[in-house]
Each structure stands twice: as structure tokens, then as C-alpha cells.
Amino acid sequence: MGDYFRLALANKAIGAQSQAVGIRVFKGVSRLVLGFVTKKALTGWLNVPEYMPNFQFYERHRATITTPHPEKILSAVADYDIQQDFIIRTLMSVRQLPQRLRLGESRGSINQFGLGNFTLLEKSTTELCYGLRGQFWRSDFGLEDIPDARAYCAALKPGNAKLLLWYQLQKIANDKYALCTETFIHCSDRATYLKMALYWLAIRAGSGWIRQRTLKAVKRSLEKTG
Question: How many domains does the chain have?
């Protein structure tokens, strides 16, 4: 009976520790409304990314992947082509419809938006960081040419915003890993923020769905192959 109570107390302690880690790492997330980050929430944010210490928009999604080959997870993320998913392809087609109408071009003649448009900022065994700069609310996204991490970190021009896409991998048990994707957006000025806010409200649900389907596709492919 003594062993039973010791085991129960140990399990309770582990659960409390895991919960504390979650609160410590993502403190401030519960304060968000529709992904808008207030200055107060940012002040208490303990897991601020190096490449974007200040941001006004945020979303996070997570999947648990069971695999004996964790080294393949982030590679699968980097290699995943979102155009192979019918739902994502349809969402992106709708997003780029204004551009096609404006240019009078067919779907095939416009470059499809995807991870290839991002600049790889950092890659390790536990994380991937991608950056994007431009005017995302425009029909053509208004993207800047970003050759490297230094260019990404340079000061923004008035009227522009930048986005950080951060994938993190964490072991949670034997052959079980948490894959988390976080999106951060920083705007250069008040007018840019207002434009981005309207755009964010319009695309947030679809953007989140794309992130979720990407994580599920990566999870499915790895768990299927073992």
C-alpha cells in the first residue's frame, strides 16, 4: 500500500511539473483574443523568439507524433508540399484569386505561395525558423527579397510587416514527440498594424487550418512508415 501511495504522489508531481512547464513556456497565450498580442501579454511572454522579440499577432498549433525516427520529423516539415493537399490548395487558390483577377491570368501562370517563399533562418535537430517580410494583405503579398537571416532582422520599411514561422520539436516520452508550430507577426507602424489586423481577422481561421493540416500530414506520413 505504501508503494502505491508513493507511485501516486510521483505521478502527481510529474503532472504538476509538466503543467508548470506549459505555463512557463507559453505564459501569456491564455490572455490573447483572436491571436492579438497586447503589450501586457508580451511583457509576460517567456518564450520570445530570438528573431522576433516584438510582435502583435500570434498563433500556435501542436501535434503529437509517435515514431522511432525523430530525426525525420523536421525534414518532413521542410519537404512537405502544401499543394498536394486539396483543402490547402483550395484555400490558397481562393487567397490568390484577387491577384489572378487583377492580372487576368490563369491559376497555373501565377507562382503558388508556399514554404518556398520563406527564408530559412535557422535549422537544428529541434527547431526550424522561417522568415517572411512584405505587405501580406496585398493581393500579391508584397514580398521583400530576403537572402539571409541578417536581411530578415534588418529594420522594416514603413508600411511593411514581417512574419516568423517557428517549428519546435520536443520529446515527451519514448518514441513520442510534440511538434509545435508558432506564427509571429510584427508590424512597423500603426497604419500597417491596422491593415494587418483586418487581414488577420479575414485569414486567421484558414491559416490555422493550413497549419493543422500540415502537422497532421507530417504525423500521418511518419507514423505510417514507422
Answer: 2
